[in-house]
Design brief:
Length: 372
């Protein structure tokens, strides 16, 4: 009798599975829309064209400008300023691919309990700026123009009227264009620069002084930004570990460009919380631009980059430090030097870069910034 009951129970369970799966409350599967006249793919992962985090695409560079936004993602496919491995021109596409599993509909952060897409800001993906791959000077002017157009649009918020931009690099030279753009809206800003390299090299040193063209590259852009008056002398590097070329001159020159330094190994001594406090103290009371060279991470976590340096931070450590910067007035940011061709099949670099963008967006949503 007992065995007969068991058989019946098993049979009824099996039969139930054949007929229908239990519905999952709140989840509107695109499949459920089949048979209808239209299918809504908003927020659907792996569907439609690949935008960052499946955000809506807006053609921000056209003349119309009717679709308003508060924070724009902009790709900068540029890698002719790199001194190591090229390939960061494919970075914007790679970072978007790394963000495929992120959905604005289901983006609740386990640590903060927040979904940055469900707060006040309208966040969209502008696609990439069209940049020539044959002339750095022209490409940077094109990027300057793209930043200008996108940041000069009216924002969606009536209170916070300047749209802010997160740039997907591109090699690090592209940050120069972003800083030229932020200068026009906010004046000189403090830069929190996550990188294994200082990037303040004198163009006469890095580039060999052979030509002006050669001097504008991914290791000199912060020197140039300092020369152009775009950055405050309250800036700071984080994660530095690569050798300098000239001990006395390079480090002294770096300070002259406005930078203090947190080295990669300072994290061991200070702990992430100590690093957060040091960064916050340095930039206190100023507008902040956050630039993240993915080579701040150890190549074990981010092999797909132009000039990898061992002995770097883990992805978790970087995310902890970044998220700890909440409350700062972040007026723009970028993730650069992602060259997907050197990634492994598990895509650790592009996944990390996508998550870093999420942290940048959260900082910008946490602290809206009023126009001056
Ligand atoms: Mn760099």
């Amino acid at each position: 009798m007992i065995s007969l009951l068991s058989v019946l129970l098993i049979a009824s369970t099996a039969a139930g599975r054949d007929i229908t799966f239990p519905s999952v409350a709140g989840y509107q599967s695109p499949m459920m829309a089949l048979g209808h006249e239209s299918i809504d793919i908003t927020g659907a992962k792996f569907a439609g064209l690949t935008t960052f985090a499946n955000l809506p695409y807006v053609h921000c560079l056209n003349k119309d400008g009717s679709e308003k936004y508060d924070i724009a993602i902009l790709g900068a496919p540029f890698d002719t300023g790199v001194t190591g491995r090229p390939g960061a021109r494919f970075g914007p596409g790679g970072i978007r691919a790394g963000s495929r599993r992120i959905s604005p509909e289901a983006g609740w952060n386990i640590y903060s309990g927040k979904n940055l897409f469900k707060e006040w800001a309208t966040i969209i993906d502008c696609g990439d700026a069209p940049l020539t791959v044959l002339d750095n000077t022209v490409a940077l002017k094109q990027l300057d123009t793209a930043h200008g157009i996108i940041s000069n649009r009216a924002s969606n918020s009536t209170e916070y009227t300047v749209p802010r931009i997160v740039t997907l690099g591109g090699d690090h030279t592209t940050t120069l264009s972003a800083l030229r753009s932020t200068f026009k809206h906010w004046g000189p800003v403090s830069v929190i620069h996550f990188d294994s390299h200082i990037d303040t090299w004198d163009p006469e040193v890095l580039g060999g002084g052979i030509s002006h063209y050669a001097g504008v590259n991914h290791g000199t852009f912060l020197h140039i930004a300092h020369e152009e008056g775009l950055v405050r002398n309250t800036s700071i590097h984080a994660g530095i570990r690569a050798p300098v070329m000239n001990k006395k001159h390079d480090v002294k020159h770096d300070r002259q460009c406005g930078f203090e330094m947190v080295t990669a190994r300072d994290l061991d001594r200070l702990t992430p919380q100590g690093v957060i406090e040091k960064l916050k103290r340095r930039v206190a009371g100023t507008k902040v631009y956050i630039s993240i060279d993915i080579d701040v991470l150890d190549p074990a976590f981010a092999p797909a980059t132009g000039t990898a340096e061992v002995g770097g931070w883990s992805t978790r450590e970087l995310l902890t430090v970044l998220d700890g910067l909440t409350g700062l007035e972040v007026i723009g940011g970028d993730v650069v030097e992602v060259a997907p061709i050197y990634d492994n099949a598990g895509e650790p670099t592009t996944l990390a870069a996508a998550e870093v963008v999420m942290s940048l967006l959260q900082l910008m949503v946490d602290q809206p910034v009023k126009a001056e």
